[in-house]
Amino acid sequence: MGLSAEDLAMLLNVMAGSDPRDSTSVARPSEDFTSQLTMPLSGLRIGLPREFNDGNLSAPIAASVAEAAATLEQLGAKLVDVSLPHAGMAIPAYYVVASAEASSNLSRYDGVRFGHRCEAPKDLADLYSRSRAEGFGAEVQRRILVGTYVLSAGYYEAWYRKAQQLRRLIQTDYAQAFETVDVLLGPTTPSTAFRLGENADDPLTMYLSDIYTTGVNLAGLPGLSMPGRAVGNLPVGLQLIGNYFGEQRLLQIAHQYQKQTGWHLARPALAEL
């Protein structure tokens, strides 16, 4: 969404706030997200979740995260080892919940009042089936099918309810971590950015790329992804996770890191990808 943390802070100054027409927005006093960008990081406690350094994380990405942690420590932050015991369950819980929501929310797009309408349908069943088949891509169709399955009468308790229970455990893990630290630092993905077209036909690999970010979504926490040192000309993402309404602190840390390193200004040589 921006080329730097400062860009994001200026965007948030415009975007953030309560919307009387949005029932999901929260009534909070307005903030100036650019006001704390230059504040030093002295005394800031940064947690390093040990579960993020698992068998899925490639060695070059782990080295990039360690380098970023060392840079932030040099800027005055204190590094703290923390645990997120249920982090490994985030992927299955997330894709059950997200697919169920996709199935429910997209059910209105049947070609009658919403969404794409197929040409010259033979009857109502043909209108529904062709409109949805033509209007949704392969990944959307996959999620609708999975979501319909987990919400069905015979599987709701076994899948959807269990995923929601896992969601609560994951939220509790983060809440306990933020009792001892201010933010969390880790990788955005377990590997570098994919080369063009790589893994396009492998949805499982694509899903596993979200292993470190889905827990943040399930817990409803703010997260920020920023570039770290590239590996072999391929971009590396570093993730900062904050407590509820902690966006200003995330932007402050990212801004200080970017002033110190400049990795966000690097561009990969596209001819090599």
Question: Describe it for me?
Answer:
With 273 residues, this protein is of the alpha/beta class. The protein has a single domain (5-12, 34-272), classed as Amidase signature (AS) domain (Amidase signature (AS) enzymes). 43% of the residues lie in helices and 10% in strands. The protein has 9 helices and 5 strands, in the order αβαβααααβααββα. The chain has helices spanning 5-15, 59-74, 90-105, 124-135, 138-151, 156-177, 203-208, 214-219, 247-261; strands at 45-49, 78-82, 183-187, 223-227, 237-242. Helix 2 (59-74) links the parallel strand 1 and strand 2.
How is the secondary structure organized here?
Elements: H1 5-15, E1 45-49, H2 59-74, E2 78-82, H3 90-105, H4 124-135, H5 138-151, H6 156-177, E3 183-187, H7 203-208, H8 214-219, E4 223-227, E5 237-242, H9 247-261
Parallel strand pairs: 1-2, 1-3
Antiparallel strand pairs: 3-5, 4-5
Helix pairs in contact: 1-9, 3-5, 3-6
- Going by CATH, the architecture would be Alpha-Beta Complex
Radius of gyration: 21 Å
* Average pLDDT rating: 92
Global morphology: globular
Strand order of the largest sheet: 2-1-3-5-4
Q: What separation lies between the terminal Cα atoms?
A: 23 Å
Largest sheet: 5 strands, mixed
Annotation field: number of helices: 9
State the name of the first-level CATH class. Alpha Beta
The CATH topology label is Amidase signature (AS) enzymes
User: Approximately what portion of the residues adopt beta-strand conformation?
Assistant: 5-15%
